[in-house]
Input
Amino acid sequence: MKNISFKIDGRNCTAEQGQNLIEAAKQNGIFIPTLCHFKHLNPLGSCRVCTVKNNGRTIAGCTLNVDEGMDIEVNTPELLDARKAILEMMFVEGNHFCPSCEKSGDCQMQNLGYETGIRYTRFPHLFVDRIVDARPERIVVNQNRCIKCKRCIEEVRTTDGNRVFNFTNRGNKTLVSIDYEQEAKLSDTQAEHAMHICPTGSILVKGKSFGKPFGNREFDYSNKEKNISFNEIKKHKTTHKKKRIATTSLAGCFGCHMSMLDVDLGILDLIEVVEFNKSPITDIKNFTEHCDIGLIEGGCCNTHNIEVLREFRKNCDILVSVGECAIWGGLPAIRNTVPLEECLKEAYLNSMTSEENEIIIPNHEDIPKILNKVYSNHEVVKIDYHIPGCPPNANHIWNVVKHILFEEEYSIAYPEFKYD
Amino acid sequence: MDRTQLLNKLWEYQHEFGYISKNAISKISKSLQVSNIEIESVISFYHFFHKQPTGKNIIYLNNNIISEIKGFEDIKTTFEKETGCNFNEQGNDEFSLFETSCIGLNDQEPAALINFLPFTDLTPKKVKLIIQKIKNGENLKDFASKTKSKIQYTPKEDKTVLFRPYVMGKSIKEGLKYSSQEVIDKITKSKLLGLGGAFFPAGYKWQSCKNNVDDIKYIICNADEGEPGTFKDRAILQHVPGLLYEGMILAGYATGAKEGIIYLRAEYLYLLPELEKLLEEFYSKNLLGKNILGVEGYDFDIRYQIGAGSYVCGAASALIESMEGRRGEPPVRMWSATKHGFKHKPTVVNNVETLAYASRIIELGEDFFLSLGTEESPGTKLISISGDVAKPGIYEIEYGTSFKKLLGIEMSQATAPYFLQVSGPSGDCINSSEFDRKICKEDLLCGGALMVFNRNRDILQIFRNFMEFFKEESCGVCTPCRAGNFILTEKVKKIQRGLCSQEDLDDIKQWGKIIKLSSRCGLGKTSPNSLMMAIDKFPDYFNIKIAPSNEDQHVEFDMENAIHEFDSIIKDTQL
Output
């Protein structure tokens, strides 16, 4: 094969003629993110994350073979945003609860989320009820996490050459379904291979899924790097009035508040420049004055949450959603794919601990009403900043707050990004 | 069994048993030596294949927007009441009811197919009668509707191209006077464009297929007219089907292909008996078969392939996938079909109308064709008009005709037109200030559908219908189209509920841009088009939807809706 030269974002590159663009770019030190492209498989062109422009025309990079004189754009603002948007679409289409996912930390989609800096999705989550199919012999298919990349369809075959996975249905109902008969013929190695090529946690092998412990996962960075230190706050000390902070936990677990306290002795530096108004930390129940910043943990699952959130909006200049629940519902939103009626009946009438023949779901005018689903905070009021994580680590939270309060530029480093 | 026969095999089971059972799937997968899931995958892609048993009478009611404004809801409830079944469920022994996207009868809405026979201009009364007759055991064929569309307009006699009197074999005889290259040159010179909606030059396609040397080549006629609002191909199949055959035979002559296949959408299955009769006549007159009209070695055969209900199969590459017995997913394009098409052989895929025009161009000469229309788009074009007009139907117009004229008293007689959808949901929408625009390459091309809506129609209702259509018909392979159209549908619904801010409208434009930019095929590249356009073109309408901004920085949030469910559950569970 003859060598050719082409350009990526104005940079001269060389490769073998006809080489796949993703591979060719990699050889030239340029990373084009993709989720469906896989080594020897024919280009699938399904995830569209690798969308690039070739001589001004958009195309999925993985479906492009390089040729002499090609002028390829990869990292223009338009394409970077499109790439991020496509990933966001995947997050809202499925139900990706990273904190409860076996693949978290080893998940290629999550990694690209960090890589592209997704803090929240511009799209509302769709919360479609999707099944977890544990009927196959070895494999569990969790449809909540499937991004329909087609890798397993093309790659996983029995020794006889039969497909084990395939698409069924079409449109927004498209699923990757599994053939039970063929799946049973897979060897252990073949089944594990299926799990490994899945870019998310959609295909798991029973008894094999918790391969790596936390902190040792493919896309986790070492602890040393993880903690961006929280210091120098004292330099903002003035004789003027201290900045005021309010915090609250809505439909959350208070884990984010625990994390806030995890800053250890840093809290002593902190309170020299800020004071806490309404907050579980101070146990002040009502706003006593207007605040500079409000930190919201948790989303809105009942009418009380909505009232509190609106009150915060009214009393704070800047509102920050802290943690996954606040940003898009988080773990409480697992109920969003289940009708409210079923949730209530399960909790109050049919659960193991409820009395036999119980027919009453508790209700009183003083008890907040449960909303039909858990809403993210920005669906209810305007939210100025989002800090992802479950929970975000302490230094990260306070660094962000510090920089917002004192108007300093701050870019979030990859190791601080976590959805779990 | 050959994989290309899969769709036919599935149809056999579907027709005979009303569904394709697990047993049948096993049998088929064994004979093809593939896994069951592969067959299920194909079945579940197509709307007309069922995996669950259906009733003896399967009713498909058109749910497109024209049907909707002509009384779809009433018809739907009447069907449900009379048959005792619900739509989109399995049904009972006697009936199964399903909604379906446009069945190409927009000038006769509401319309339904019952066991693939057409029943048009439905009213609740008519529905009652139909169901009664079925229950009485009458033969459906005896009271199915006549669907032949009215040809409402043709240019002055000497300027009409398509709908002038048809003489069988005339264009083939004319074409045989020339060499195959000369025939292609004539088509190229005539500037004939692909009329299925992509407007790719037909001559170029033929030439490219001719240049790719191979022992086997195919001419495929795309009769999968799925773009909602379009029914001009049906009109050709009903009025002048001979033109289509002759166009294919000439394409075969020009490119060296010996086999022609017409991919007919299942919605037009009722046309098949007549069409096949004509095919026999062609064979008996030696216009088809071996040594056509005595020309040594000029062989050509035509057969039909029936589709199974999928909009995206109207795209040439997906259509070929479908013919090869797979899901109609537009493949990753490495080659053009004229190089590696059906069965990997050089293939021309042309729309019905394109082939019919090709036949007329050879018959009447390219100079005549070039003398009509405009510089860039010579000739005439078929437009199917429906909606709020007094005279819905088929219009053969010269290119360069304005929308104003089309809507006017001499033509379709629109009543207070406000919103025009040109070329179906994937096309463009235009407002009244643009009615002077002309249908031609220089201004705005039209794939064949013109849907007219008057001032009383709700634009969001129109778009909800369009977006639901795309959401359902996306092949599901690529993220932006599958998820993006779903997300846009939800957005339209949200705005319909009265929750709309300027940001929502901006979102639609930005999100639409991303979907267009990154989708794999034409479906996703066009689906958000019209919606994005409408926001700019109908500011009066959208501006009043926007809720006034509030000082509290509350986002539009529907508290009533959020607690409605709880209230109604609690009401039922208290003592």
Summary: The domain at 224-416 of chain A is CATH 3.40.50.700 (Rossmann fold).
